[in-house]
């Protein structure tokens, strides 16, 4: 009952408002052809569009009352009210059908709004024209003129006043952010409009155009709401000017001016709204992770920097790394893994304090910044995270997966952290120590902890590796691969090796590369080596050189590696067959399917594929079927013991025979005694490599070694036949 009474009161108030607006417009426009604008029409459309069709009596009653006030009989006046309601309902139907938002926030929404107004008001032209011809016995031309006047009146009323009311919340919000600019524009319209009313009538039309820039000003300040408010104020000024009759041409021009002013404001408002929204969306995407919606690493580092400069609060930093997440990706695919990450991100977010800052740092790693938190409180939060993640279960069909989380915790300290990376590195070190000590636990960073100290040293080494790569502190060396069968082929074959310039005696490049592989940075190193090799092949000095380049498992598995490698021959103008991509059995074992797909692509485009350490594993022969191998490098341990261990010769012979049956060339590694070369040639091995043949030298210097390559190779091979 109370609800019905409340609705009845609201309906009564709206009816009174529409009626007052109608009477005001009629009183203010004694010559209604001047600018046919009726605010009640736009307010009525806004009422139905925003609050629903149940307010239709307000439109019928107010329109009927207005028509009766100018002398129309009750039935005819009721027909006018019904026609007004028909236009409003058709307009609302089209707006809802075309899914037009009440905020008209972009060009698409605005164009659909205008189209709905045009269609609905155009329907009224024939109806109103017939009414004027039948009821008042006007000739067809006059009746049609009345219909056109009604069309323009409804169109201008809807266009100017409806957006102001339906988009008011958005307008009010925008006005707060630019309230002085918007207020200045509205005040200028009022002052200039008042001045226009004071001048002579022959000057009013010329001065009226001075108001257009202020409509634009309001549109830029408050978007659609501001444009509508400015257009409404401009319309009120023009209604106040309608005190004397004017020629029909002037009336049309003034009506077009009101239309153009409103459309100009709306178009600018829509354009700038779209631009602002696009900029905001780009900024959001730059600061948030697209998968989980959490902050990304960039924004999280900004928050950490801000926390470091905040002297009033204590901050704790948690670094989370999910345990056993890779199992889900490997078992069910990356789509399932992404779905699980979204779920677990929400789980973590719900378990954190309300003021905590959570970010996805990459892969299955998350960062959490806890303001106003002591170390013991941070450990309590970490324990809560362990509990909720252990309780979390992810389902894929009949499969059920559970994961754990390793957490590293550290306190932000301005005296230790000169930038965000320092704090994140300490938390990462503690997280790594948690994994190393058994996973699914929390470790608090302590520089006295030997495991953390070792991890810190590793990170410094890796950081130095990437820095040295970028600054040219590494160079490529080359070791000759001798052709045992055709010493006169004119091709110099080398394996490319990575070395650090001015390398310390106790430093091993293998240790550095193993560390790079462990931390997922080997792909960057391999790309650098491959591109530097390609750049060397482009030089005139390398016209008869072929290079063998080692490729790690992570490189073959990294996104875009195949495209990167395939582009090199065209970029550096060399034949792809001059590059041998060398992989080890460990690569094939790790990811045979993906390795085969990538290697087949490369082989089809002309690259040679070599399988290193052939014979080291039990599945060596099987790889010859699964991978597009054109060359195998027999494990050097068999070659090293070739002249001392009879079984080594048997193994080498069997490996060579199987490879030869498949048309695959063989390379003997670790040749430390030139006396074994004749026997290797007899077994069918085509190439040999080792310190006894050639010691690695800088790649740039090998041009001096092959001034007469055929003679050098022949002599080396013949002397030990």
Q: Can you walk through the features of this model?
A:
There is one protein chain. With 721 residues, the chain is of the alpha/beta class. It folds into three domains: 2-280, no CATH class; 297-446, Alpha-Beta Plaits (2-Layer Sandwich), CATH 3.30.70.270; 471-718, TIM Barrel, CATH 3.20.20. It is built from 28 helices and 16 strands. A hairpin with a 2-residue loop joins strand 4 (394-396) and strand 5 (399-401).
End-to-end separation in angstroms reads 113 Å
Largest sheet: 8 strands, mixed, barrel
Instruction: Give the averaged pLDDT, no decimals.
Output: 81
Proportion of β residues? 5-15%
- The strands making up the biggest β-sheet line up spatially as 8-9-10-11-12-13-14-15
Labels describing this entry:
about 725 residues, alpha/beta, Alpha-Beta Plaits, TIM Barrel, 3 domains, 8-stranded mixed β-barrel, 16 strands, elongated
